[in-house]
Amino acid sequence: MNKNFDNSVEGAQQLDQDDPLAFLRNEFEMTVTPNGDEEIYLVGNSLGLLPLAARDYMNAEINKWGRLGVRGHAETDHQPDHPWSTYHEIMNEQMASLVGAKPEEVVVMNGLTVNLHLMMVSFYRPNKQKYKILIEGHAFPTDHFAVESQIRHHGLSPAEALITVEPRPGEELIRAEDIAEQIEKHKEELALILLPGIQYYTGQVFPMSDIVELGHQAGAIVGLDLAHAIGNIPLNLHEWSADFAVWCNYKYMNSGPGAIAGCFVHERHLNRPDINRFEGWWGTNAETRFEMETVFDPIPTVDAWQLSNSSILSMVPIRASLNIFDLAGGILPLREKSEKQINYLDFLLAENLSEEIEVITPKALPERGCQFSLRITAQGKDGREVFHELEESGVSCDWRYPDVIRVAPVPLYNSFTDIFRFVEILKRILRPE
């Protein structure tokens, strides 16, 4: 922990003045309280803020629809920019850079759970010997629901085919050696490993590269749920050799509630004639798609997993957000700022609330993103009530059962002063005079 931070508002303001990425905050609309005051928005781990450019981009597509109607799908003299038929493609390179992939390995489509099912259709192919799936015991519910339903779809029982890895008794975090032990223990029956990049409850970053390597050594497919990782930490899916990954785009990707999701398939699986896949007309050869042939001719990229034509108006905010990541210089400068903000919040909590707050997120920077999972330990204080008091005091955060308040200083738009003000409000709630 950096002991050189100044525990004062002037110290926070100086950090903001010295921040080369502070200008990015102006690219977003900050939320306000019911009385019109600007909030301290620390819940980007649940829903990112609105990129201001999204309004202009949205109006452009609405106007295009009104002006051109169906002609908006095609590139013509009247419609030279971003035709709808290829709209998703303009984001591939930017999205790929955030997950460490090649553009042909990434596509924006569907929702996270839909993509998760589509990936398991292709990559969970159980047989008598290999039929088990490994997930974490406290995985986000959608992972549990999707995995268990896929197991049942194949006529198997989750009681026999589902393996979970859990924290040890009395601990909050899953140890890397326990993941490795489960992989080794079940390697003869293990068909698929599906783990998160970052655990949604604790904020723990999983050792993704090691998990992929161990999984492949066991002859298993390895998929990653990156809902809390993309836009938060650097990723390198291609080099890690993950088989597939899925993510949503409404958290750190700032693309709006229920935003279209993303999907990665490693290039070794692309254009394979033997792969099992649910197919739709948007995955067939774009050059012959409108000839309406009934023989599927898969696009030789991850686009082959597309089912329906793209939801253009839902994709518009993603484009606006990706352009802001480009303004930042990519994920690495943002991660550098994020690590400084993490250290700063660690410092303030230790200086001001060491007896009242337990941070269950890992302490080591490589094992954490920007989310802090806080447990209230102050005598006579109920965590849920503290959460409500924070909200009433103009702090947007969230509550996760059974007893965690999650706050996430997002480097794209949160300032060091936001962090300082949050701790001051929390101190006032937990130490009333």
Structure commentary:
The protein is α/β, with parallel strands linked by helices and 433 residues long. It has two domains: 9-30 and 330-430, Aspartate Aminotransferase, domain 1 (Alpha-Beta Complex), CATH 3.90.1150; 63-326, 3-Layer(aba) Sandwich (Aspartate Aminotransferase, domain 2). The protein is built from 13 helices and 15 strands. The protein has helices at 9-17, 53-68, 92-99, 112-123, 141-153, 158-161, 176-185, 208-217, 237-240, 312-328, 331-353, 383-392, 416-430, and strands at 28-29, 40-41, 50-51, 106-108, 132-136, 162-165, 190-196, 221-225, 244-247, 262-265, 357-359, 372-376, 395-396, 398-400, 404-407. The chain has a seven-stranded mixed β-sheet with strand order 4-10-9-8-7-5-6, sandwiched between helices. Strand 8 (221-225), helix 9 and strand 9 form a beta-alpha-beta unit. The chain is globular, with a radius of gyration of 23 Å. The mean pLDDT is 95.
What are the defining features of this structure?
433 residues, alpha/beta, Aspartate Aminotransferase, domain 1, Aspartate Aminotransferase, domain 2, 7-stranded mixed sheet, 4-stranded antiparallel sheet
What's this, in brief?
The protein is an alpha/beta fold and 433 residues long.
